[in-house]
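Subject: for your reference before the review

Hello V.,

The reviewers asked for a structural picture of the protein, and I figured it would be easier to keep everything in one thread rather than splitting it across files. Below is the amino acid sequence we used in the manuscript, unchanged from the supplementary table.
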Amino acid sequence: MLLICGWALLVGGAGAVAALALLRLIGLVTNIVFYQRWSTSLVAPGLEHRPWWLVLGAPVAGGLVVGLMARYGSEKIRGHGMPEAIEAILTGGSRVAPRVAVLKPVSAAISIGTGGPFGAEGPIIMTGGAIGSILAQALRLSADERKTLLVSGAAAGMAATFNSPLAAVLLAVELLLFEWRPRSFVPVVAAVGVSTVVRGFLLGTAPIFPVAASGLHAAPTVDALCAVAGLLGGALAVAATWLVYRAEDGFARLPFHWMWWPAIGGAVIGLGGLIEPRALGVGYDVIEQLLTGRATVSLIVGILVVKTLIWSLSLGSGTSGGVLAPVFMIGGAVGAAEGLLFPHVIPGFWAMMGLAAVVGGVMRSPLTGVVFTLELTHAWGAVLPLLISSTAAYALSALVLKRSVLTEKIARRGLHLTREYSTDPLETFFVEEVMERRPLLLAGQESPEGAIKITKDAADTAGGGQCLLPVLTDDGVPGMVVTHDRLLEATSQDAAAHGRTTLADVCEPSPVILRPDDTLRRAAYLFAEHGVTEAPVVSHGPDAQVVGTIALRHLLHARRHDLTEEHHRQRLIPGQRRPRPDSVPA
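And here is what came back from the structure prediction:
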C-alpha cells in the first residue's frame, strides 16, 4: 500500500495539471470559434449575440471532427468518460491506451468549445485515469494496483476541476473502485490531496459557486418540501436518463456509420442554441446565477427545457463530453423553478436542492450529490436539506429505472454489474457450521478394491468421480486424501500388474486443508486458488485429526441463508390473540 501511495502522489499532481490543461484548451477553442480571438479564459459561447450560422454550424463542425477522431484515432474517446473508465477497470485489467490520454481531452475540448452542452469532468476522469493507468503499465504491478492508480488519477482530475476533494473521493468509491479497502482508499485520498493542493496554486482555493448561507435556517416544513424537491428532481433525472438512451437507440438505427452521429448531435445542439444561447458550452456562469438566485424566469425555463433536450439527445450521439456540469445546470434550473413557488429560505437554496437531487438521481450517487453541492457552494448549513433531496431522488430513480445513466451504457455492452455493497455472506459462516461432520475415513492398509466397495454410496452421493476420501496412514499425518477416480485408476493398475497396492501407496497430501474456524470466504478463495472442489477439515493442536470434509456445494449454505434473510418475512413478537367466543368470561 505504501508503495502505491508514493506513486499516487505523482499521479495526483499530474491529474491537477491535466485538469488545468483541459480547462485552458476548452477556453482556447471557445474563444477561437465564437469570439475569433486567441485566449484561454473560460467563457460562455452564448454570452454575447453570435450570427445564427455560427451558432448552428459550429457544433456540427465540432461533432464531425470528434467523429473523425473516434473512427481513426480511438473509439474509446466516444461518450462521457465514466462508463469507459468503469469498463477499463472491470474488463480491461485497468489498462488504458496512451493515445486515449491525448485524444480524449482534445476531442472533449473541441466538442465543448464548439458549443457542446457538456462538462469537462468526464473527459478529465478518463484523462486522469489514463495517466494513472499508463504509469502503472510501465511498472510491475498487479491489476488491482493498476486499478488503484487509474482511479487515483481520475479522482485527482475531478478534485482539481471543481476544488472538491471529498466529493472526488466519494465518487471514486461509489462509481469506480467497487471496493472499500485501505489498499485502494488510502492511495486515492493521497492523490486527491496532492491534486487539491496543486489546484490551489494553479486556480485558487475559493469555492466554484459561492453561496451566502450565513442566515440559513430550514424549518421542518422546509425539510418536508425538500423531499418534494428531491422527488421532482428524481423525476427529471429519470426522464433525462430515459431520453439519453432512447436517443442512443435512435442513432443506432441510422443507415450510416457512427462516425457521422456526433455531427447530427451537433445540429441538435445548434438548433437549441438558436432558442437559448446560454444552454451552449459548460455553463459555469449559468450555474452560478442559478445557485445565487440571480437567474431570470426566462433563463430558468430555457435551461430547464433546452439544456435537458440538447444534452440528452447529443449525448446519445456518442460525442465526447462530461455529464456533471450539465446535470448541475439542469438540477439548478429545476430547483430554481421550484423556488418560484416554495417559501424563500436564502437566495439559491432551492437551486441547491435541485442540483443535489438530479445528481443523486442521474448518477445514483446520493452522497456524492450532497458533498458536491456543499463543496461547490460552501453552504455547510444545508447538509440535512441536501441529504433529504438527494436521497429522495435516488430512491425514485432506483424504483423506476433498473440502471443509471452510467451503468446502462455498460450493460448495453454485455457487462451487467451492481453497485450495491453488502457484507459477503461467506464471511459470516465458519467451516464447522456447514462441513460434513461424519467423514468416511479409510485405513492406509485398505486395498483400492475394498475402498471402492466401502465408498460406493459416498461416491454416488457426491456426484460420481470427485468424492474426496480422507486416509489414515500409519504415520498419523492428517490431510492425506484419495479421490474416487484415483481408486479406479489404482484398481486397473493392480489388475494389469497382478500386484498388491494399498491406499497408503496412492493417497497424497490434500492441496487445501481447512480448519473448523476458517470462514467460508477463505474456503472459497483456497478452492479457487488451487482448483479443487473439496478439502478435509483438520482440527487444531498437536493431536490434530480430520473432523470433517467440506465441498463446494456446502458454500451455497451461506447464499441460501442470505436469500432467506432477504425474502422470508415472519412475525417474531406475536400479536395478542383475540379470545375465543366460548372462553369469554360471563
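For the response letter, the relevant points are probably these. The first strand starts at residue 442 and ends at 443. Strands lie at 442-443, 468-472, 480-483, 508-509, 534-538, 546-551.

Happy to draft the paragraph if you're swamped.

O.
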